[in-house]
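Minutes, project check-in
Item: structure for the 315-residue chain
Input as provided by the requester:
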Amino acid sequence: MLARCYAERWPLRTAFVISRGARTEAEVVVVEVKWGGIVGIGECTPYARYGESPDSVMHQLEPLLSELAAGLDKAQLQSRLQAGAARNALDCALVDWERKYKGDGFAGPDSLPTVQTLVIESPEAMADAASVAVSQGVEVLKLKLDDQLVSERVAAVRAAAPATELVIDANEAWRSDGLIERCEKLAEMGVAMLEQPLPASDDEFLEAFPHPLPICADESCHTRADLPRLKGRYEMVNIKLDKAGGITEARALADQAVAEGFGLMLGCMLCTSRAIRAAWPLGPRARYLDLDGPTWLAKDAEPPLRFGAGRVYWS
């Protein structure tokens, strides 16, 4: 089996602003594996929050790509690379190749619901963005927030989208001081779910109070190994292939999380449609799906998925 990896940069149509800063492009690494005239493709988004870069990911991948000809398979890959972007790209490429080799056609729903993300802006600008999204048929809005103007931003969006379900992602930007009162206020404002309010290294405070709304682990949950420490702190987990290290571990994580009573969210990084296709099999299992990464690109990879009315369509 021949294999190669390469990096790509995809400019965004507008800045993507979260509590950690702003992004103006998506940097991805693509893996292609080929044998018998069949090509499998996988994509990952290296994330600086986890110490990753395109160079570091390709440095991890290159020794393993040369081993594919000697028979390196998906099972061996799980122990050869730690969970993260590099393993994700190679795992998804192998799964894609295997599916095509077996002649398996597309299996799954023709479309999936997805939230529409609102990045951090002024309350007025976020309200305007919410109005546009609702006019286009979006039913769930995900608000990126930092630690400033939280109530003001949520109130502005709620006024602009009174019937729309709201979820909030703080990306670890909040602190335990005042968190109980803030959660109670958000619940009163009709927020349906709160994602990762505290740093992953300092989230034990979440055990200290009854949650007035479900709290979802994102940065705190990568693989099945994280689940024991999440009990009592979170009601849901956000599964992302880049964190789990591929669809193989992501499926196992979903199975175990559900068995242990967690609800599921399926998320993504800033990515092309290739990454969303790889995660598609998990879509029907998730309560919330955040698959709008490609909608932030000025131009998507071919062939692009189609987005509209709060859904993503396979073709």
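Outcome recorded: The chain has two domains: 2-102, 111-313.
No further action items on this chain.
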